[in-house]
Amino acid sequence: LLMLDVVGKEDAEKDIIDRVQKEIEQAGGQVETVQKMGPKPFARPTPKRSAAHYVNIIFTAPGKAIGALDAKFHLDSELYRWQTTEIVPEKVYKPRKEKKAAAAVAS
Predict the structure, then answer these.
(1) What is the pTM of this model?
(2) pLDDT by residue for the chain (107 residues), tens digit each?
(3) Distance (Å, rounded) from C-alpha 21 to C-alpha 33?
(4) Sheet harboring 30-41: ordered strands across?
(5) Which of 3, 25, 67, 76 is least surrounded by CB atoms within 10 angstroms?
């Protein structure tokens, strides 16, 4: 999830998204989807900003790439805030066999 600082900049959102996608690919990742959520006001406005353009980029990348991307994002003044989350696949659990049921069948 990215919060873009594009106040007063026409058509900057597309350029920033393209640049972030390129950085993800250079870090060894692959972008799956880009969801533009548009401008939204902050629940708690700051003295400098009261809103930002939100963009959700879903991508896959090796674990090492996340630290490299975070370091690059810190240097980009047009990225106000960002959050990277890991999607952990669900584990498939097999039902546990009851010991009592197995003992009753064996008798």
Answers:
(1) 0.73
(2) 889 988 777 678 899 999 999 999 999 999 999 999 988 988 888 888 888 899 999 999 998 899 999 999 999 889 988 988 887 777 777 777 666 555 555 55
(3) 10
(4) 30-41, 51-60, 2-4, 79-82
(5) 67
